[in-house]
Specification:
It holds the Pfam family adh_short_C2. By secondary structure, the chain is of the alpha/beta class. It contains nine helices and seven strands, in the order βαβαβαβαβααβαααβ. It has a single domain, classed as NAD(P)-binding Rossmann-like Domain (Rossmann fold, 3-Layer(aba) Sandwich), CATH 3.40.50.720.
């Protein structure tokens, strides 16, 4: 009997928001590519194009897999559909096997009376509507097959009732979609849908909040570490990538509709 593996050979994945080398999306893309998947690296702004191309080129060089780079804001269905269609064309394939909804927008913490309409609309349009549009596109235009995998990247703040409150509410809405789609897509298409919810972990965008100028943990980081139940450290993007790899493998075929915290056990309760 052969040794069990988490091979993704022959699979194709789209990971939104994966164009930053030190981000969660790029780490997940790396884990998938390392295990044989063809990967579409996604970015939004023109200024991020070079970084996304560097991520894609590195995956091809290191693991010998096919990669492509796709651009566009996912808060528009036409753009989401184009992203999927460009991926199919680039790889010469008929379907998408894996979608990771990792594109996010979060604004500075604002009180109810301070938050502006444009900020509200942007957070929900990307975090909620973008998740909907990309999922519609991979299931429809992407013809996601039986055994397809969808992962929504959430956040532990959706369960902790903590700032930033608008982002927390948007992620809670996304959590609800995970549960609803798992039933709908599981029964009709044989697709699993799960949420991976990270706690605070250092990335290019979060380091200023989690590390002091001398590299030591900030007050926020220390508070998170104290709430954890695992090793005495913050989580890393590799922790997220490994969890994602497990969820998209054949070994997780019976895991769906789950909200899985990747935080070292931070629950908000003692």
């Amino acid at each position: 009997m052969p040794v069990d593996t988490l091979s993704l050979a022959g699979k194709t994945a789209i990971i939104t928001g994966s164009g930053r080398e030190n981000g969660i999306g790029a780490a997940i893309a790396t884990a998938f590519a390392r295990n044989g998947a063809s990967v579409a690296i996604h970015y939004v702004s023109e200024g991020s194009k070079g970084k996304a191309e560097k991520v894609a080129a590195g995956l091809t060089k290191d693991f010998g897999v096919k990669t492509t780079v796709v651009q566009g804001s996912v808060d528009n269905y036409s753009t989401a559909k184009r992203i999927v269609e460009e991926t199919l064309k680039a790889f010469g394939i008929a379907h998408i096997d894996i979608l990771v909804n990792n594109g996010i927008v979060t604004n500075p913490v604002q009180s109810l009376t301070e938050v502006a309409q444009k900020d509200l609309e942007k957070e929900f349009s990307v975090n909620v509507f973008g998740t909907i549009y990309m999922t519609q596109a991979v299931v429809g235009a992407g013809a996601m097959p039986i055994g397809g995998r969808i992962i929504n990247i959430g956040s532990i703040v959706s369960k902790l009732n903590s700032p930033p409150f608008i982002y927390s509410a948007a992620k809670a809405a996304q959590d609800s979609l995970t549960a609803a789609w798992a039933s709908e897509l599981g029964r009709s298409h044989g697709i699993t849908v799960n949420t991976l919810a990270p706690g605070p972990m250092p990335t290019d965008s979060s380091k200023p909040f989690l590390q002091n100028p001398d590299g030591s943990p900030s007050g926020l980081a220390q508070a998170v570490i104290q709430q954890g139940r695992a090793a005495n450290r913050l989580g890393t993007v590799q922790d997220m990538a490994d969890a994602a790899l497990l969820l998209v493998s054949e070994k997780s075929r019976w895991i769906t509709a789950q909200w899985i915290s990747v935080s070292g056990g931070v629950t908000g309760t003692s």
